[in-house]
Design goal:
This protein has 10 helices and 10 strands. The protein is α/β, with parallel strands linked by helices and 259 residues long.
């Protein structure tokens, strides 16, 4: 897949998502700019994580999930019959809510993904580079062959980010990456995101309004209607959305009046 810089990093068009007969998300049109951080916010059950998982076809792993519409990555619909979902995930990496390091050494956590994606260069250099990019190298360089499970929660999450960027994706998806972390570890992840966005496009789902305001360039606010179907209510530059929202529901949510 060739990167074309004039196109959005990823774009959804009339995206509808179903779980069986349940219409989970309707008509989402969203254009994500390259090398920016886009936050997805909204009350529980509004579909923001469901939309996020559509961007690398993770919903394919749910048997009853069905997607209609298009998701364009570098201008190509990733849901076309000719597109390999595994290849999509090579370009669109994901960091989950709970840190999920493999029960292997720190070194092997980084090397494993690179190996299965055909990396043939200097693995020691790749591991060090990935850990440096994830702001973790200085903390773990003397224990690379110890179990990753011995790291703190915040370190484990940064290791998962390092593991993701080791395969050189174009986009990093983050599904509430700080919800299981303490405030100090959370700030480290936020600082890391601001550094990584120079080289990657980042999309983050968060329930933390302060976090969205601090780290993101753009914010998408999702709502849910009376039938429990989620939809995109408002999208724009974060500063504008937080200071001059176009919809009362947006203002009520970001000021804590509901949600």
């Amino acid at each position: 897949m060739t990167v074309v810089n004039s196109t959005p990093a990823i774009e959804s068009r009339q995206l509808n998502i179903y779980y069986g007969k349940f219409h989970a998300v309707r008509d989402v049109n969203l254009s994500i700019e390259r090398n920016k951080i886009t936050a997805m916010i909204g009350p529980s059950g509004c579909g923001k994580s469901t939309v996020l998982r559509c961007f690398n076809r993770m919903n394919d792993l749910i048997p009853i999930a069905r997607t209609e519409g298009e998701v364009l990555f570098n201008g190509q619909n990733i849901y076309a019959d000719t597109v390999d979902p595994v290849q999509v995930r090579r370009h669109v990496g994901m960091v989950f809510q709970k840190p999920n390091p493999f029960p292997k050494s720190i070194y092997e956590n980084i090397a494993w993904g690179a190996k299965i994606n055909g990396f043939v260069g200097n693995m020691d250099e790749l591991v060090e580079e990935s850990l440096r990019d994830a702001a973790l190298w200085d903390e773990v360089k003397d224990k690379l062959h110890q179990s990753a499970l011995g790291l703190s929660g915040g370190q484990q999450q940064r290791l998962c980010i390092a593991r993701t960027i080791a395969v050189k994706p174009d986009i990093i998806l983050m599904d509430e990456p700080c919800s299981a972390l303490d405030p100090i570890a959370t700030l480290k992840i936020e600082d890391l995101m601001r550094e990584l966005v120079e080289n990657y496009t980042i999309i983050i789902v968060t329930h933390n309004m302060q976090q969205a305001a601090r780290v993101s360039d753009y914010t998408a606010f999702f709502m849910v209607d009376d039938s429990r179907t989620g939809h995109l209510m408002e999208f724009g530059p974060t500063k504008e959305l937080f200071t001059k929202p176009k919809h009362k529901q947006t203002e009520d949510y970001i000021t804590g009046r509901f949600g």
